[in-house]
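It is worth pausing here to work through a concrete case rather than discussing structure prediction in the abstract. The textbook approach is simple: state the sequence, then state the predicted structure, then interpret. We follow exactly that order.
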Amino acid sequence: MPKTYKIVLTGRVQGVGFRPHVFNLATTFQLDGTVSNNEEGVIIYLTGDKDLVHSFYRILVTQPPKASEIKEHQLTETTYKAFDGFSIVPSKTAGKLNLQLTPDFAICDECKSEIVDKHNRRCHYPFTTCVNCGPRWAITNTFPFERDHTNLAAYDMCDSCAKDYGNPSDRRFHSQTNSCSDCGITLQLSTANGEVVATDHPIKKTSDLIKQGKIVAIKNTSGYLLCCDANNTEVIKKLRERKKRPTKPFAILYPSLELLKQQVEINTNQENCLTSPESPIVILQRTGFRGALALVELAPHLNQLGVMLPYSGILYLLANELQIPIVATSGNIHASPIISDAADAHKELAKVADYFLDHDLKISNPQDDSVVKYSDRYQEKIIFRRSRGLSPNFDADVKTGQKILAMGGHLKGTVAFLPNDYLYISQYLGNLDHFDVFDRYMQTTQKFINLFEEQPEVVLVDKHPGYNSTRYGMELAKKFDVKLYQIQHHKAHFASVLGEHKLYDKKSPILGVVWDGTGYGDDAQIWGGEFFTYQDAIMERIGHFEYYDWLAGDKMAKEPRMSFFSLANDSMQNEIKQKFTKEEISIYNQLKQKASLKTSSVGRLFDALASLLGLCDYNTYEGEAAIILENQIIDYRLENCQVYASEMVNGIVPTQELFNNLYVDFKNGTQKEQVIANFLFTLANIILKMAEQSNVKVIAVSGGVFQNTVLVDMLKELAGTEYKLYFNRNLSPNDENISFGQLMYYQHIKL
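Step two, the predicted structure:
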């Protein structure tokens, strides 16, 4: 006697071809029933023989669609029901949204083949997708994932697309983003003045314009990109001038993996990352570069390149026409958020781009490209920016039940929301000092609240009273009349690593090392070189870098020479006179005498060294001095390195002594590269010395300083097997992890 069974699957199971996969599997097993999406995941009803249903279930959960991630699954017997065959039924929601959202996926190989096949009806159609690829989060307004809930709802499928959509053997069976040139999204090429360029082949024409030395703003599937010939020195200079981005490196889009491998050495990890469904920008060493790129203009003062491969149909078709690398940088004015609306793009970028390649698909959730780097020796993966392809889901063990909104930091704004059984962390949003970024930040926060139809019961903010994220969090807590908690910046950093690696229940103590540029401390000083311990739900600060003067507020973070001035003693006055006018020296000396605000920042220590060595006195982008420092080191040998700091006393690192010794070594003729290697070696040794003094064998590190891959490699090499090291793994070590760290701190540590 056949029985009826109900199967519920949760996780990333919508927008990944799950329902058509279930349909075909059920048909193979000759089972009757239905499959649908709801607010929690995928719901399947099956009527048939018990053994057959259990076999179906076993194969389903062990061999799901390749883009899916099943979190939980359950099979139960339910009331008998007779079905007429098996069918996909429209989604029904009976409650609020409680599932993982679907990120954007890079175009798959099958779709790539179709759009360059002159015999295929989708040839040259740049918005070709299937159940395995294409934009998801970028174009989604609400869930469950149905066409009507995306911006594709504006396009009715033609008969041919509808046929594909209804064909169980077709790759586009129930593909919600299905469209073609007869019924879908249209491209338009125009000048900066808005004059439409009549052409039947806008991508071919765009390719020609780029080869002619023009700058083109291209509306991609997650926002605008500014593109030009990466071999053309003059046009790159022009782009820098127009975009107001004097030295920050530009991302480079290579037309193919084959050409990239001909010009740049890449390893297996980097190749796998570049060709993954996330397809981020990957930072590569340019040692031994064999191409014609305008290296100096693309990445001034750096020996690395940020490269990516075509991840959307429009980029793939463009690359196929060009067959040369191009600049593909975020479509914005420096420090503003990426633009996704055509009207905004033409208004804001009219003086940057010569031409615009627009399309009429609305983008609801604009995202920058994610950025990843691997350390050279140990291949430690470090996320520099978590955005397209990675957000907004985040898989973590969280205590559910209480609805929590964590507002994050300030320089690398993100929002974390726990409205149900899942945690959601927004894409990278940027520096909240800038009005447009802060506006995008507020919109994103409100979108989360509206999407899940849940108001927070707790709001978490940074302790810094001047952060816009803190102020906005306070406003929301007041508006919703809920509890507000302030969590110290560096403790949130430490908590983020503990949360990523599920270390809260570990019985032995853990040393936390958090080094960055700035953060408001519990003693109202500027922290940034901190040591903590965690054990039994208690986090304590046990040490820090010796305080030195914090001068002229935000100016210190923008001008590395100011950090050098703060740390300079009498023997360094010749160098000071070369960097400051007499009037400046007089003013800043007075500030030093009166300075009550102090800092322990390791990030500013990097700045001071960069200024001393003549590498960078003014940052034109965040972290520039530190990046230039790291890029001076092509290779190093630990046995040739020396330590600049003596023993710590009571957990205090002798900052002034460290800098003085470093200065003397440099003045004695040691090469810049070796001084930098010694400095990083010193920092790595300090961590292990603190662990030794604290009798701790487990170390967790976080903060922007740990984006330095040479420091990470040195630390791993020195630690060997004696110490267990933990780094941020799926989040950036920079302030993007603060929102997650705030939530982890609140859930696991005694407030």
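Step three, interpretation. The radius of gyration is 27 Å. The first strand starts at residue 3 and ends at 12.
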